[in-house]
Design brief:
Elements (H helix, E strand, L loop, with lengths): L9 H5 L2 E4 L11 H11 L4 H14 L15 H13 L5 E5 L7 H18 L2 E5 L3 H4 L5 E5 L2 E6 L1 H12 L2 E5 L3 H8 L7 E3 L2 E5 L3 H12 L7 E5 L3 H16 L1
Parallel strand pairs: 1-2, 2-3
Antiparallel strand pairs: 4-5, 6-8, 6-9, 7-8
Helix pairs in contact: 2-3, 7-10
């Protein structure tokens, strides 16, 4: 990792790795500035280097206004950015983010990821993220799907979606005001059909045939139902890979 043999060079390797845990792990009773100074000291940064690095990260992560605030008084989204600053203090070449936006509101999530993308591109940091949010995962350069501790797929998000569609087809979707009756009518013929809000959908290897049959089945109860096919979202791509993996184990 980072050019080191992990079992033989643990000490130098720790300076190449930054880690931000899912659980906030900084000292809540210390001010923001003191937390960062403490961590910088643990990494052995010289005083002048320490001050310059903290000033830069506070500015880049939009934390300067919180410098003297007690950490426990900060909103969750601000604490997440503080934890990110802490993980970047020693200029690591690899940054691990473990569920970094869990419990954070959508605006704070978007702001956090904008900062991560900017820093990764500018400083050349490799960022490895674990997340359950597929809309976040979709923005990664490479994406791996895990199932029960096993890596079942690894590629670019676009390539993974293409692989899932090549294997089992795109989505067929049905939208109707009378979606409950439509679902009851379609489910016996399409057992993998699922309700997503007011939309019915299933992955189909023969979408044109399925759409034609769905129109015939619904002609009497929902003649104006909107029936179409569409590409898989990243969440649906993930579900498709998990389904295929489980079927392969049977």
């Amino acid at each position: 990792m980072a050019g080191y043999e992990v079992t033989r060079a643990a000490h130098p390797l720790r300076f190449e790795i930054g880690y931000m845990s899912q659980r906030f792990s900084l000292y809540r009773d210390l001010p923001v500035d003191s937390n960062l100074k403490l961590c910088a000291g643990l990494y052995g940064l010289a005083p002048a280097q320490r001050t310059a690095r903290i000033d830069r990260l506070l500015s880049e992560l939009e934390l300067s206004a919180y410098r003297d605030r007690l950490t426990k008084s900060l909103p969750l989204g601000i604490r997440q950015r503080l934890a990110l600053a802490n993980a970047l203090l020693h200029s690591p070449s690899i940054l691990f983010l473990d569920e970094p936006t869990s419990g954070v509101d959508p605006i704070a999530r978007r702001r956090f990821w904008n900062i991560v993308h900017l820093l990764a591109r500018r400083e050349g940091v490799t960022v490895i993220v674990s997340t359950h949010y597929m809309d976040e995962a979709e923005h990664c350069d490479r994406l791996g799907f895990m199932q029960q501790g096993r890596l079942i797929a690894l590629d670019t998000p676009q390539a993974l979606a293409q692989q899932a569609e090549q294997r089992a087809g795109p989505l067929v979707t049905v939208r109707s005001d009378d979606f409950a009756r439509c679902f009851a009518e379609l489910r016996p013929r399409f057992p993998t059909a699922m309700l997503h809000g007011r939309r019915i959908q299933w992955q189909s290897a023969k979408p044109e045939d399925d759409m034609a049959q769905a129109r015939r089945l619904l002609a009497g109860i929902a003649p104006h139902a909107d029936i179409a096919s569409q590409p898989l979202s990243m969440e649906e791509t993930f579900v498709s890979f998990l389904t295929f993996d489980r079927q392969s184990d049977v």
